[in-house]
Amino acid sequence: MLTLLAKLFKALNSESSPGQIALAFSLAVIIGLTPFTSLHNILVLLLAFIIRVNLSAFFLGVAVFSGIGYLIDPLSASLGESILNNSALYDSWTQLYQNDFWRMMAFNNTLVMGGFTLALIVFIPVFIVSRMLIVMYRDKLLAWVNKLKIVQALKAGKFYNIYQSLAN
């Protein structure tokens, strides 16, 4: 876990694009808010490996959003149930379920449907907010954070040694 945090701080302090890190968090939302064994999560993981995103931010985001997803599972399940029980969409769900691909995606599961819907709703706001926070951190907080006594104490410890080894 320390190595993952060190890699994230290395990415935050580097010249890598804030958009790459923000997109990693946004993709992590999809995996974190839905059941982990869903087929669409494999597709999102494959997409994260193919496009240029920061993988340490992605995996840390998956861990964080999985915890959030666990807490909001009842909300996700009730949202998925209301979407699946919408009488106007019955024909659509029936047509999708006749196709093997959509049947494997398991969108007939209330938790998958609700979690995926919530993930799609928050995908762009997470991207925008995380990108803004990364830019603000680099512009305003980085110099101030380096002056803090606790940061100077951490630089003397194991975490900073891991960070330095990754920076080289």
Class from secondary-structure proportions: mainly alpha
Distance between the termini: 19 Å
Q: Could you state the order of secondary-structure elements as H and E?
A: HHHHHHHHHH
Strand content: under 5%
The mean pLDDT is 86
Low-confidence stretches: none
Q: What's the number of helices? A: 10
Radius of gyration computed on alpha carbons: 19 Å
Overall body shape: elongated
Total DSSP E strands: 0
What is the makeup of the main sheet?
Answer: none
Brief summary of the model shown:
The chain has 168 residues and is mostly helical. Helix content is 82%, strand content 0%.
Question: What do these coordinates show?
Answer:
With 168 residues, the chain is mainly α. Helix content is 82%, strand content 0%. It has ten helices and no strands. The radius of gyration is 19 Å and the shape is elongated. It starts with a helix and ends with a helix.
Could you name the key traits of this structure?
single chain, 168 residues, mainly alpha
SSE layout and pairing:
Blueprint: H1 2-13, H2 18-33, H3 39-50, H4 55-71, H5 73-84, H6 90-97, H7 100-105, H8 110-147, H9 149-155, H10 158-167
